[in-house]
Every structure is written in C-alpha cells, then in structure tokens.
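Acetoin utilization protein AcuC, Microlunatus kandeliicorticis. Tokens?
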Amino acid sequence: MTPAPAGRTRLLHSDELTRYDFGEDHPMAPGRVRHAVELARSLGVLDAMEVVEPPPADLELVRSVHTDDYIDAVRLAVSDPRHGLGTTDNPVRPGMHEVSARVLTATVAAARAVWTGEVDRAVNISGGLHHAMPDRASGFCIYNDGAAAIRWLLDQGCERVAYVDVDVHHGDGVQAIFYDDPRVLTVSLHETPQVLFPGTGFPTETGGPNAPGSAVNLALPPHTNDAGWLRAFEAVVPEALAAFAPQVLITQHGCDSHRHDPLADLELTVDGQRASYLRLSELADELCEGRWVATGGGGYAVVDVVPRAWAHLMAIAARQPVEVSTPIPQSWRDAVGERAPRAMGDGVDVGYTPITAGFDPASRLDQAILATRRAVFPELGLDPGL
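Tokens:
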C-alpha cells in the first residue's frame, strides 16, 4: 500500500486498550480489538497510519461526563445496582476503572489531534462505549468515551459536533448526555427499540426543549439487509448532517449489525458495513473539511466479523481502502484459528435503490424512513416529503 501523507491519519492504540473485557464467557470477549489491529497490520493498513500510544488516563476527562459517585463506585470494583455494576451485562472486573478511563482518554486524544490540526482523521477502535450514562454502566459500557470527546471539543470552542452511530443498538448514552444541547447533533441507525436493547431510539426522540432537531433516530425493522440499510442511511443522514453543518464528525462503528452477530437481528454483511464507512468518510470531507474521529463499538462475532469490519474502517480512515476481494493473509488466519474467514468481504453486491426512485408505502423499511423524516426534518429546516 502507498502510505498516506505523514501524520494525516492517526490510530490511538496500545496493548492496554485491548484489556477492556468482561471475561471469556461474556459477549465483550477478549481479542476483538487485538484481532482487528493485527489483521490491519498484516494487510499493511497500519503502514498508512501514524500509530500513537494514548496518553495516561485523565480523571478530569472522565468527570466531564460522569458523576463523582459513579466514578468512585467503578474504582471500588464492587457490585452496586444503583450504578449498574455487578449485573450480567456489566460484571465487576479488577482494573475496570483504569482501562475504561484509558479508553475514554484515548478517544479524547483522537478528538484533540483532529481539532488542533495535527491530523485530519483519528481512530480509536477500542472506543465507542455509547451506552454508558453519567451515573451508571449500561450495555457493556463503563465510561462514555464518545461523549467525553464531544464535551472536550465543545469546551475548546467547537460550535457544532455531529455524532453518527451505526451500531445495531441505539446510541442512548451519547444522546442522553447531549439531548438538550443544540451544539450537538446525534444520529443513530439501529434495530427498532421495539425488539432490541436498550429500548430507546424511537423517531419521536428529536431533542430537548432547548435543542429541537438535535437527535435523529432511524429505527430499522428486524432483518434489514445491506440494500435496505444503505437506502435508509442515504434517505436521512446526508441531508440531516448538511443542514446541521458540523465542524467535526465523530462516528461509532459497532459492527453488530452483521448477519452473523449473535445479539441482534439485522442482516448486513461486511461489504455493506464497509460501504457505510466509505460514505461517512465522504461526508467528513464534504462537510467537515476532513475532520473525522472514528471509534469501534459493539460486535460479537469476534473472529469472523469484527476484525474485518474494523480493518476496513482503519483503511478507509487512512484513505487506503482495502478491496473486499482481498485475501486475508495466511499468517493472520493461522494465528486466530480454523474459523478465520478467507477474504475481506462476504462476496455480495451492496447496490441499493435510493428512496428517491420511489417510496413503497407497504414497506416497513420505507415506513421507518418516513417516520424519521417526518419527526425531525422540519426541526432541521428540511422538507420531510419523499
């Protein structure tokens, strides 16, 4: 691969960040991040990036989005139902505070590098812990790194930050923290909360009284595939972002929307997920002068899906996309075992029909698209019609 210009894309990564896990029997299994980074390395993707170890954990950054009582509870590492600790989703683990704070600090460091102009783009695939609330853990998430990065940008004088979340689960923690802040637009595409955790993210959630139109929620029907997902994305996200005119784009790339993921019911492929990353890369260039901070997120098909999806994300962030037909290096396959995929894609066509070619009133997908447009587009000064 041809290296990108020196210093223009940065990966915040260290071995410590790979220790964010809840044990071998938990869906947030060890190896997710490590496998992705090693696959990217074996493909030459890291040669096109500046790989930087994140700074030490900064407690003040954690405090910028979490309460002192909650932080103290995490530090004690004991079960505390008031703060969501010690549950099946969020079991207590030694060192949980330290590694969670380091992940949060790494995402803020990525935002800092982009905002100060050190780089155009920065990635922390260990991040994307979007369910964490100010005073409690939720959905495998202890500290909300995306929210801390947004808070840091606002504190530095950034006037408009857009956050786009493509995880199969609603980005509820980030939305909740900034729901009444007109400087932040949160956009989430997720499986409908009627059937999936966390039970929020309905189209009618459009922002608080001081920030109407600041939350965009596209709740997709179960079994939505690549063509449907991309149709929905294109029908809502570009117009909403353009109307908001962000200065920085922050994205969360949970890849649990894949058809093989055990925790949800969408049917995307790695090829379709890669297409969404390419589109977000284009939107960062079109709307934010390239300023883009990308994080990981959910994803529980630990060998088959997560490494490929996030290797694609890193390659696209580095402006060196890897073709889906690219064979996976044998050295990586040998290291992860017999379940390792053979190619960087799933071998499918990701073409789709844009909704501008015709709205189908009987389609649950098109009904979801229209519900979102009708709920939030007028608050953004946009025509909700199709």
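DSSP finds eleven helices and eight strands in the chain.
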